[in-house]
Amino acid sequence: MRVVAQQWMSLDGYASGPDGEEPLFAAIPPDADAASQKWNDNLLDDVDAVLLGRRSYESFVQFWPTATEPIAARVNTIDKVVFSATLESAPWGDHPPATIHHDAVSYLRERRSTETTLLVWGSLALMHDLMAAGELDELDLFVAPAALGAGTPLIPAGTPLALTQLGGEIWPGATHLRYAVNRPAAAG
Fold first, then answer.
1. Is 58 a domain residue?
2. Do 142 and 179 meet the contact criterion of CB atoms below 8 Å apart?
3. Which of 104, 127, 138, 146 has its CA 20 to 30 A from that of 9?
4. What average pLDDT does the segment 126-133 reach?
5. Gap between the Cα atoms of 27 and 80, Å rounded
6. Handedness of CA 61, 116, 83, 174 (dihedral sign)
7. Ranges for the Bacterial bifunctional deaminase-reductase C-terminal domain (predicted)?
């Protein structure tokens, strides 16, 4: 199984601004957004399900079920799993609802031996939990041309990660970087 976390981030390492995601998303040029959607359209060929935290789910479900973006049909029909201790259902407009699980780490550990690719979209708290538990395999990063100066960091302070760069490219208005998260060898 491969768990890929995809995030937009600022040049100074923040995945959201001091007041949430809005300052970061406002800094993404339209050409960069189009390039990221084209990348995701291809990426979704290999993705079995999208993983979302509750807050990202609530944000995404307000936009995607009625979106007219070129990638909307794919976003709306792919399997989605929402991790929440409070939601009882996760409808997705006229499309199949997301399933709900309470514990992301247990969910992934139960499936670790399967040949599947799971994509964490947004969901920074979920990404941080998976990172801390050693359940994250890859970072797929879009770097916006902005320095926010403060906010929620992509990687929490005191979280060392050994990374191997898998690829990178310069898009009009953004940089795309991919890293494998190196796992320490199992003891014994």
1. yes
2. no
3. 104
4. 95
5. 27
6. negative
7. 3-161
Pair of tokens at residue 60: 């995404």
Are 118 and 51 in contact by the 8 Å Cβ rule? The answer is yes
Label residue 148 by pLDDT band (50, 70, 90).
very high
In a domain, 121, yes or no: yes
Cα–Cα distance list, 26 to 19, 69, 80, 116, 146 (Å): 12, 17, 26, 33, 10
pLDDT reported for residue 184: 63
Q: Which amino acid is at 5?
A: A
Residue 172 lies in a domain: no
Question: Which residue range forms the structural domain that includes residue 91?
Answer: 2-157
Number of domain units in the chain: 1
By the 10 Å C-beta count (0-12 exposed, 13-18 middle, 19+ buried), 157 is classed as exposed
Q: 75 is written with which tokens?
A: 């976003």
Residue 22 pLDDT > 80: no
Query: At which residue do the structure tokens 């399967």 appear?
Result: 114
Asked if residues 8 and 121 have their Cβ atoms less than 8 Å apart, the reply is: no
Strands (E), the chain: 2-9, 14-16, 49-53, 79-83, 90-92, 95-101, 117-121, 138-143, 152-153, 163-171, 174-181
